[in-house]
Amino acid sequence: MPVTSHRALLRPIVLVLVPLSVFQTVWRLVLGTEPSRVVNGVLVLAPAGWPEGVLTVLCWTWVVTAGVVVLAGGADRPLRRALPALPTVLGALLAAGAVLVAAVVLLGLFLPADRVSVGLVALLLAVPAGAVLVRVALVLPVVVIEDAQGTDAFRVASARVRGRVWSSAVLLLLGVAAPALLAGWTMAEAERRTVGELPGLALWLTRDLVLIAVAALQAKTLLAAYRQLSPGPELGPAGVGQDDTVHRGRRLHRLALPVGVALLLLPTVLAGAVIASERLPEVSVAQRSDHGTLIALGWPAGRHPVVVSQSAIEDCLDDQCQGVPLLADWLSDPMCYVVGHVIAASGSGRGVHRCASCDFASVGG
Question: Where are the domains of the chain?
Fold first, then answer.
């Protein structure tokens, strides 16, 4: 297998994910279902809608497929060469989603139950679901390398993985699923804890870098899972002369670094410009140390912010939260802690607490 440079792998990922990040920012600022805010100097966009979610899935699938094309030896025009594989890969992605939904529904049929029973049922469901998900995941490299389409790709993937399902499952779990989940959780926690404009802009840049790294890791993992089952052929140039490919590759190699840096900085610069314009509502939340970690911030229309922390719900008297009466102060039992929250459109808040014994009269709304 030829050595593929990191630049060749990162180029198609950057060319798609960075413009996608800019589009998401503009979309949520202009057409978001809720107003975007500047919280503690950090631009917090409105929640994503379903059109944006569909576009994100399409673009992410496209760049991971293009990454596999590059790693398999097809560094020439990887985004274009990945397009014919997308219908089959997206079909496999829908099948994976259906398997997960079916597993969750079946698990829900056994609830409520004791933890041992739920764990046993979850394990029994995980075995067949995991076996199917491994085969579905391997459809992507099979389509790219062996040019199988539709159900033929699934049959080829099933034949390749026969007898080595669980070794492939561990590799795909560590290299595909876990990085995506960990990156999402880490970025959400970082956004909640970051204070200040410069740290906020650094967070935006870090988020884009993390997403690019996750996409590259997923492409590498998918190809590695395929290669351990079958060496497979290498992809060649996409119908162009070798000299043309070499010359174009040299030109792109010289331009890759400055263009890549400019693209990576674009979403961060856009976020900084939005904050500097001071056109969005701003709130500065000084979290009280005795109330623990900030869980959520709600900003009902026509009202001041409502802050939910681990041990209290605070209804701010102004947009800067300098005056904060408590809707629910310390709970009567020290073992109580907030595990959920509801902030109504009227501005009222109510915490959902888990504890050994609580005086729920102290939880106001």
Answer: 6-277, 285-362
